[in-house]
Write the structure tokens for this entry.
Amino acid sequence: MLLPYHLRLAVRSLRRDPGLSTTIVIVLAIAAGIFCTALMHYLRTYVGAAPALPASLHQVEIIRSHEALEAAFVGTNAAPNLVAARQRVSFPMYRALAASGLPTRQTGTFRARVLAEREGSPASCPRNARFVHADFFGMFALPFRFGAPWTRQDDAAGAPVAVLGGPLNDQLFDGADSVGREIVVDGRPFRVVGVIDGAQPFSPEWDRSITGGPQDLLYLPFAEHERLLARPESPISDGPEGPRYADLLASRTTSVAFWIDLPTAALRDAYARYLATALGARGVRYELRDLTLLRHALGLPKSALNFFVFLTFLVLVGAGLVASRLYLAKGLTRRGELSIFRAVGAPRLSLIVRQLLEALLLSALAGVSAMAVAAASAFVYNRLVADTDIPLVVTPLAFAITFTATIVIGTAAALYPAWQAAARRPTLMRI
Amino acid sequence: MSSNVPNMGETPMLEMHGLRKVYRAGLVETEALASATVTVRRGEFLAVMGPSGSGKTTFLSVAGLLDDFDEGEYRLDGENVRQLSDQKLSRLRNQKIGFIFQSFNLIPDLDVFDNVDVPLRYRGMPGAERDRRIEETLAKLGLVARMRHLPGQLSGGQQQRVAIARALAGKPQLLLADEPTGNLDSQSARQIMDLLARINAEEGMTIVMVTHDHEFAARAHRKLHILDGKLIDPEAR
């Protein structure tokens, strides 16, 4: 078996032409790093880091006429968020739906600005707080760095508990385990029971209307919104009928995304019958869609990002062409050695394999180095381009795709030079 | 010395008939070998002489399957080599032919052991057998102490002995030497010639050696001259 021998010779060859080898690695690594940076954007936007969720998650969607929605915004510069309009219900409707008792798990959720700080801190900053039920964390499989979600009992008892997002925990507690510590939200104390791990997906399943927006920094029990008088972010307004908070809650203004888990066909049938009575009989147009259908319907439209990923892939291919020229130069520097190998009986194919192995090693090195380029690029992006607080990170998927693309392009770039170098006739002449 | 030529088998080691080799550069054609016909018996030591540019190296290249030819027939150990695939030619070169080059052609960053190891690797020989053969060959050539030296750390004579060890380790039937003493001082050159003569005499290995040196050529069983690509056997006149 000549493969280990060829591998040894390939490693030796790398040391023999350090200048050319390093240049090939740098050229490929920079291009692959650029490609990886664009790819990270793409993956964050279109794939995200969301875990696999059960298709048994459903959402009740209310179908309204666009004309009616537009009418509510007449005289303003604003326009209705059509995704939010369809995916959210009003507080009264939420209360009615939540009382069915049919789903195995359910949660209402909306986001509002609150003042939150660690206990004893003089300053207090506005933060994005998401109001949810205990089931929310399990339904959307949010990973916990510390602690755990609060319980249904906490919900029922109105316990003042909170779950912090990772970034807020980093800000308030320097990333330490804050479980059991207190934070103050709008002047009320809340006990931290858990800390979410990692960043929020760019397009969170639980609220597609805020795709690309800032992260949920903390999670509070749904019922707390009344005590904190938390006003929902971006309500789709039919106009509250009075200035008080209670007027908003009583209005048809749509604010709450309502999620239910219906894991069996029997439950789904029962819930469909329930909706027909609760909504259909009252003339409300609605739809019950599971997560698979929702993902399909609410998939992000193709954007310029796709084109930029393609462009950066072309940059990587261009680097492959440059590498190809460098491999040709490498072949020239070693034509004597290859000629000796041919003379003593090495078949052409074995020399091609040997050179491709060398290219594979260089490409692997470039693929790994590209991660350093991508990480540095992501670091600069996260610092300088703050259009979102959802950071750009080198994910395993981005690494795997970039590494594979670098290996394939880097090795393919050596095909012609390897063939050409191996095709040279062996000679008796001085080499 | 032709009377001492051994006859170690009926099939000649090398048999060329009407061989023609033309180099083409654009519209210019140069006939490097013109209807070359020669037979080299097993165990024979043949010296090939001729002025520069006469076609000696081309003859050796074609004989060593390093280069193809345009016309004629060439049988190596009874096998017609025309139209053989690269794989088969490589195998023949590896198993039947050993090369000694004027400028040694050792791989500079492989030590002596690894240089000798190269052709054996392509034979698919087990590691232990390879090691045994290399050590045995290096011992025979007095190079055991230099086994882990790089070629650059050796004298010219020593480097040529390493090249000979590389050629001999695989126990080829045909040794092709292209001016093996051309880059050596007279003492080293004489030692190398003694070595080649001994290998031929003791192991019955067929040797075809290109040389300019009449003294060394005289040690061969037979001399062949090349002039303008034509082979001339002075003893056949």
Remarks:
- Chain A touches chain B at residues 2, 5, 12, 16, 336-337, 339-350, 425-431 (CB under 8 Å).
- The CA atoms of residues 2 and 259 of chain A lie 60 Å apart.
